[in-house]
Amino acid sequence: MRHRAGIDVPPLNVGTGGPLVLADGRAIPTGCADTARIAAFESGFLPATAGDGRRRRLMADWAHACDHAARAASASSEAVRDAKTFAQWAEDLFAAGDPGETAEQVVALAAAEIDIPHVGVTMLRAQHRLDTVAAASPLLARVAELEITLGEGPCLDLRWHRQTLIIPDLAKDTRWPLWSAAVADFGLGGAMYVELAADNRRMGVLTFLSTEPRDFDDEDVAFAHIFARHAALALQSAERDANLQTALDARKIIGQAQGILMERYGLTDAQAFAVLRRYSQTTNRKLRTIAVDLIRTRTLPDD
User: Helix (H, G, I), strand (E, B), or coil: what is residue 45?
Assistant: First the structure.
């Protein structure tokens, strides 16, 4: 190995059984490119023929190698910890159960990571309805309701698709002037909105609201962006499972109602279903509701 000072340093076998521990206590992984060079200096190798200038340059090179390797090891360790943390969060979210429990878990994990008083999950429903399904405070639902009342706001605005929206000072924001002013009157200062998207579609928004103006830093934004992707997939899975269970329950109930009609009136399966559907249409009530009433009362509405 040749150093930039021009002195040949013989390679040193530092082994592969564990990290190299420097004199100052820092541990450097043995796979690091700087390990052999650092180990050589740590072992006391310093050419006797080197003059003071070269010796100073060699020592500076040693210090630089130590710092570079230590930073690389620290970054690698931090990345591993982050990966394990996100993996655990994903596992917790998918294990939560129904959509409500999943949303509550999303809020709890997000609030634990970013120190802020108001965190919530607002889902977009049919006909531009907003449904705050989980929140760390009741204020989140009021903020979402304002968007519906005023017809403007970040949850309804699709122009920031697949982005993280930062509002450092709500009182000064001009994108949604009516909404921003009303929210500021609630005593709120700053906000961060993170899209919950699945299948390239916005299904909801993860909201962070502070009581003071706040410039969310890069670490906050990075966490929110990655976490929201895990949260969106977990919420989508929970809602899909819930919808499937609802459909299965409805089919079972309707089947029971058909059985009652078939036994009482000697109808076929198709005829019994046609009767239920006709009552549903004439009364403008859901087929499942008609079936539930029939099972409970053992009679049709006009019997």
Answer: coil
